[in-house]
Specification:
The complex is a heterodimer of chains A (271) and B (289). Chain A is 32% helix and 24% strand. By secondary structure, chain A is α/β, with parallel strands linked by helices. In chain A, strand 4 (61-66) and strand 5 (69-70) form a beta hairpin. In chain B, helix 3 (69-81) crosses helix 11 and helix 9 packs antiparallel against helix 11. Chain B is an all-alpha fold and 289 residues long. Chain B folds into 2 domains: 20-65; 79-285, MetI-like fold, CATH 1.10.3720. Chain B has helices at 2-16, 24-61, 69-81, 94-125, 127-140, 149-156, 159-184, 188-196, 201-239, 244-253, 257-285. Classes of the chains: A alpha/beta (271), B mainly alpha (289). The A-B interface holds A 54, 56, 74-76, 78-80, 82, 84, 86, 88-91, 99-100, 102-104, 106, 125, 128-129, 132-138, 140-141, 149, 153, 170-171, 174 and B 1-2, 5-6, 8-9, 12-13, 16, 189-190, 192-200, 203, 207-208, 211-212, 287-289.
Chain lengths: 271, 289
């Protein structure tokens, strides 16, 4: 019996124009401590699958189970990093993390909660910025706050919804490393499910990559296993032959034409 | 990379903290501020100059039907020189009249807000409450609050209390509508944070809903106190007894247009102060994204 399991899931949304099936026939089993990416074009229902695991949306058919318990709603065993950081603008960096910890780990004594918050702020190197409000820090820093917030509640599963999509390439690379560091610091015990549209990011971080078909009513196209050695780094890992072959395989799955040939050039019509 | 972030943030901090160190840049900004303030004063003086000139011309051409500015300012000076005298029920200083009006406005405004904010929160947060209350708001909001005066009289058997009652009614609508709007416009992102991390109802209210809607609520309060200050003058003309509205009516009965115009100037000035106070509060609680 696997740890996180999605069985024959179908999710539909009701709108004014009628109902719309986002994903169907989704079957996915994830082992504890794995990093799994879900990749596909916009509107293929990647985020919908993630939201079903988080408990924000409910399947019309099938079910999602974690540790053999069906997911009925959001819970502190699953930490979420949202696409657009979703920090509360009226709270400081410290308060943003503290309020989440305070809510998710309500029964712990206050001193212990404060200790946790401080530990994770230091882990993501934001100690000097702890009294700042979100508007005063850069996008990369905001995302580090969001990641620290998700880790600080010590969840078993981390759900990342296009976490690095809005960041520049350099910031993105350094956050990939930071994410893997945090994962290592917790003995690689946390399961990470990430939605992305960045092929290289998916290959670099994941153990498995779920490739989606285009929506509506998207299904899983195939699942790629990534056997790159860990710990990974941005120089050696990306030069491994396996890295390149998986990247090319994904590229050919997701992009119809990888090359431009002669027939694409504009030719003047002879009247 | 990190270094670059540190430098940019310290740079932006300096830019936005109103720079405490005196740099040539800071000095430049300081004089810029003074210059802007001075030029604003000049513009205001110009405007009032035009108004007073027009007033002088009209009062001369109406054969002193309208008192001249000079005569009016003399009366105004007499009024503000000794604002707190009390020679019995029909002869009190302008300060006492103003104080009595302000006390009524704030009592009514406070009670009105106490009703409007919770209902506004409910209407914003809950579609059922919105659908139930909104038609009532739509019907009652366009009614002049003075129309409620007789009902206040019947209910409270006192003209003074009835005046407070109409201020309560006046203060309801802008606060209620702005509060409901503020709460209803809470982005899904913020709601999702509360959901994902399992915020309690109380934490959701105090850390998400109220901080987000507070600027809208204060805007509502600011509009309410503005309308309340408009309505109190008319209300006190009806109720009589005491207050700045009564003073205007009493001055008219005594055929002193100088006093009426002086009162208008004072009412305008107090209204301006009330508005400034609330817009200061508004700026204080507005967070920037």
């Amino acid at each position: 019996m696997s740890y996180l399991k999605i069985e024959d899931m179908e999710i539909t949304f009701n709108s004014l124009k009628g109902s719309f099936t986002a994903v169907k026939n989704i079957n996915l089993e994830i082992e504890k401590g794995q990093i799994v990416s879900i990749i596909g074009h916009s509107g293929c229902g990647k985020s919908t699958i993630l939201n079903a695991i988080s408990g924000m949306v409910f399947p019309k058919k099938g079910k999602v189970t974690l540790n053999e318990r069906e997911i009925k709603g959001p819970g502190p065993d699953r930490g979420i990093v949202f696409q657009n950081y979703s920090l509360l603008p009226w709270l400081t960096v410290y308060q943003n993390i503290y309020e989440a910890v305070d809510a998710a780990l309500a029964s712990k004594p206050k001193a212990e909660k404060k200790e946790l918050v401080e530990k994770y702020i230091k882990m993501v190197n934001l100690w000097e910025h702890r009294e700042k409000h979100p508007k005063e820090i850069s996008g990369g820093m905001k995302q580090r706050v969001a990641i620290a917030r998700a880790f600080a509640i010590d969840p078993e599963v981390l759900l990342l919804d296009e976490p690095f999509g809005a960041l520049d390439a350099l910031t993105k690379a350094s956050l990939h490393i930071e994410l893997l560091k945090l994962w290592n610091l917790t003995q690689r015990s946390k399961t990470i499910v990430m939605v992305t549209h960045d092929i290289e990011e998916a290959v670099f971080l994941s153990d498995r990559i779920v490739v989606m078909n285009n929506g509506p009513a998207a299904t899983i196209r195939e699942i790629e296993e990534v056997h790159l050695p860990r710990p990974r780094n941005k120089i050696d890992t990306v030069n491994l032959p396996e890295y390149k072959s998986i990247r090319e395989r994904l590229l050919s799955l997701l992009v119809e034409k990888v090359e431009i040939d002669e027939s694409d050039f504009y030719k003047e019509k002879v009247a | 990379m990190k270094r670059a972030i540190a430098i940019t943030t310290s740079f932006t901090r300096e830019l936005f903290s109103g720079s405490e160190e005196v740099s040539s840049d800071g000095l430049f900004k300081f004089f810029g501020k003074i210059f802007r303030a001075l030029s604003n004063i000049v513009y205001s003086l110009l405007g009032f100059g035009i108004l007073i000139l027009a007033w002088q011309i009209i009062s001369k051409s109406s054969a002193d039907g309208l008192p001249t500015p000079i005569a009016t300012f003399q009366v105004l000076w007499e009024l503000v020189k000794d604002p707190f005298y009390d020679y019995g029920p029909n002869d009190k200083g302008i300060g006492l009249q103003l104080g009595s009006s302000l006390a009524r406005v704030f009592t009514g405004f406070f009670l009105g807000s106490l009703i409007a904010i919770p209902i506004g929160l409910l209407m914003g947060a809950n579609a059922f409450c919105r659908k139930v209350f909104y038609p009532i708001v739509q019907i009652l909001r366009p009614v002049s609050p003075l129309a409620w005066f007789p009902i206040g009289l019947v209910a409270f058997q006192s003209a003074s209390k009835a005046t407070i009652f109409i201020i309560v009614i006046t203060s309801l609508w802008p606060t209620l509508i702005n509060t409901a709007f503020g709460v209803a416009s809470l982005p899904d992102d913020h709601k999702n944070v509360a959901k994902a991390f399992g915020f309690s109802k109380w934490k959701y209210l105090t850390k998400v809903l109220l901080p987000f809607s507070l600027p809208h609520i204060i805007t509502g309060l600011r509009l309410s106190i503005g309308v309340a200050w408009l309505v109190i003058v008319a209300g006190e003309m009806l109720s009589g007894g005491m207050g700045i509205g009564f003073f205007v009516w009493d001055s008219w009965n005594a055929l002193s247009l100088e006093k009426v115009i002086s009162a208008i100037l004072i009412i305008g000035f107090v209204g301006l102060l009330l508005d400034k106070g609330f817009s200061y509060l508004e700026k204080k609680v507005t967070f920037s994204v």
